């Protein structure tokens, strides 16, 4: 079964043609590393997957559900199925690590309910189990801001597990971490997604780690998929090529959307 299917996806920001016809199918349970230079459109594509951005042309299907027509509950359900891990962790700094993990249940309960100290016992147990899984149960009562960057990203992974998504989008999850902490976080992320059979799409800027962890590497260049295959099938030189020449979308001439031929 396909977890993610993008067909001819195009996106403009004004006259900037950011996504230039992305075709990409990712099977359930695949671990995909997305590579590409700054400004080539990776984040925009990933944000289109759960409609944080709306694409202008083409179709995106998540777990068999076309996203274009979703609204209200359908959109909330889509977002619950897609968990995010961000470069900057996105934790609430001045509340406890435990409460941050409980936030992962937001898609299932009301905002106030997730803050409630009287969250159902089963949910609190689950939050603690998620913290145990990332090795931070002993830090549950700490404020998030008291933790190191690596620990904060582990809490973000626990929060993502609490959400219980089918698909995990990780947008440069180790970019703020030192090499050792970054590798540890990536190992943890890959372990938890594989033990739960989740699909992961993860951007990285470290080619060695991409080759090592990417069961599959998708490389983008200037708003298009430029290469796609098993991580170990690419040489560093082939991957390096993604960062040379016209790699950014804003390095190309601007074209107003109305000048683009419509999709067939
Ligand atoms: N909301 C927005 N409004 C206007 N332009 C945007 C917006 N978001 C992104 N862009 C532009 O779209 C282009 C692609 O940005 P995007 O963030 O998708 O690239 P990226 O490949 O994720 O880069 P990075 O590796 O730096 O995160 C850039 O030129 C960026 O300035």
Automatic annotation (TrEMBL):
Keywords: ATP-binding, Cell membrane, Membrane, Nucleotide-binding, Translocase, Transport. One of its GO terms (molecular function) is ATP hydrolysis activity. It comes from the Bacteria. PROSITE patterns: ABC_TRANSPORTER_1 (PS00211), ABC_TRANSPORTER_2 (PS50893). InterPro entries: AAA+_ATPase (IPR003593), ABC_transporter-like_ATP-bd (IPR003439), ABC_transporter-like_CS (IPR017871), ABC_transpr_PhnC (IPR012693), MetN_ABC_transporter-like (IPR050086), P-loop_NTPase (IPR027417). Pfam families: ABC_tran. The keyword Membrane applies. Belongs to the ABC transporter superfamily. NCBIfam families: ABC_phnC. This is Phosphate-import ATP-binding protein PhnC. It comes from Limoniibacter endophyticus. The gene is phnC.
């Amino acid at each position: 079964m396909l977890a993610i299917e993008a067909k001819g996806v195009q996106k403009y920001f004004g006259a900037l043609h950011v996504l230039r016809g992305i075709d990409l199918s990712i099977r359930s349970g695949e671990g995909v590393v997305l590579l590409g230079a700054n400004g080539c459109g990776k984040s925009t594509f990933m944000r289109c997957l759960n409609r944080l951005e709306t694409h202008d042309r083409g179709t995106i299907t998540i777990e068999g559900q076309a996203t274009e027509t979703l609204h209200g509950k359908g959109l909330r359900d889509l977002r619950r199925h897609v968990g995010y891990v961000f470069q900057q962790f996105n934790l609430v700094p001045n509340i406890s690590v435990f409460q941050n993990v409980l936030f992962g249940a937001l898609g299932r309960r009301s905002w106030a309910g997730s803050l409630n100290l009287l969250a159902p016992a089963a949910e609190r147990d689950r939050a603690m189990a998620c913290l145990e899984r990332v090795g931070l149960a002993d830090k549950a009562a700490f404020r998030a801001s008291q933790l190191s960057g690596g620990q904060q990203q582990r809490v973000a992974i626990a929060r993502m597990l609490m959400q219980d998504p089918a698909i995990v989008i990780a947008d440069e999850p180790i970019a703020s971490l030192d090499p050792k902490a970054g590798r540890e976080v990536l190992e943890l992320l890959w372990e938890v997604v594989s033990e739960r059979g989740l699909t992961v799409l993860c951007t990285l800027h470290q080619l060695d780690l991409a080759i090592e962890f990417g069961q599959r590497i998708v490389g983008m260049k200037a708003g298009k998929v430029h290469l796609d295959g098993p991580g170990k099938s690419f040489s560093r030189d082939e991957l390096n090529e993604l960062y040379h020449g016209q790699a950014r979308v804003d390095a190309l001439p601007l074209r107003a959307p109305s000048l683009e031929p419509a999709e067939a």
